[in-house]
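Project standup — Tuesday

K.O.: blocked on the structure for the chain from last sprint. Re-posting the sequence here as requested.
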Amino acid sequence: MDLGISQVSASLAAILLGSLTLLCVFKTPLNGGGNPGKESLKPASSGSESRYAVETINVTKRYSLGPHVVLAINGINLKVRKGEFVAIMGPSGSGKSTLLNLIGALDRPSSGKVLIDGVDISKLDEGELAKLRNEKIGFIFQAYNLISRSTVLRNMELPALVKGYSREERLRRIRELLAVVGLEDKIMRKPKTLSGGEQQRVAIARALMNDPQIVLADEPTGNVDSKTGKVIMKFLRKLNLEKGTTVIVVTHDPEVARMADRILYLRDGRIVKEEVVGGASAWKEELKAVSS
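H.V.: unblocked you, prediction finished:
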């Protein structure tokens, strides 16, 4: 099993901690009156805007396990264009989820640089990292990471609260997204009363609350049946094509991966192969069915 983002409780804790950090550092009001995006993070360079949503430059990640050191990521150089749909494949332990964790600013590399929309995240403090995650990145986890004791409404409100949206705007956005994923009638339900596919669709809707530029999905179809998984992936592909959202998906499923524009194959923390598959054209007819 990969270290990092696949450790669900740690990842959720990082996001929730990031949310709390934002509230303390940026003093975002919870009852509206905020000005979303006013203090958006800018690219590090003063030149033209970056063409890439994500760049990694000779990135490594080491973990200490007792007396041993595990090299989970070993000198990865990667560029993901804005609006690209990329799949990451590889055997368990190859570093897929760890790489996604680093790209999502949930962890820091041991060496090298990670740039998100031109911003070198190694130069950001914890509050700035939390702000970047909340403004630019939507996370989708295999295990959904919904708060079981809260309603769908409350689960979806968290990122919008941090962003500073008014209650009226939060409710409008929640209803709009639930309608998109076909769950508008589930707004007051608790996650434990929903099927696995419904929970994953709530998680996707929550990831889109702040209209992120980048969506990172770690095995988003891993806990649902093949039919539901196909619906979820077609939705992500449709989001990518219609809104230009950059999507990076970790998957073990070759059929899922072939929906991407490009597949990266990892082994022992390195990219060992890259394949251009042109998933957009291959799935064109099926994507029409999503909106019908």
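K.O.: great, moving the ticket to review. The chain has one domain: 11-34+82-97+126-290. Residues 8-25 form the longest helix (18 residues).
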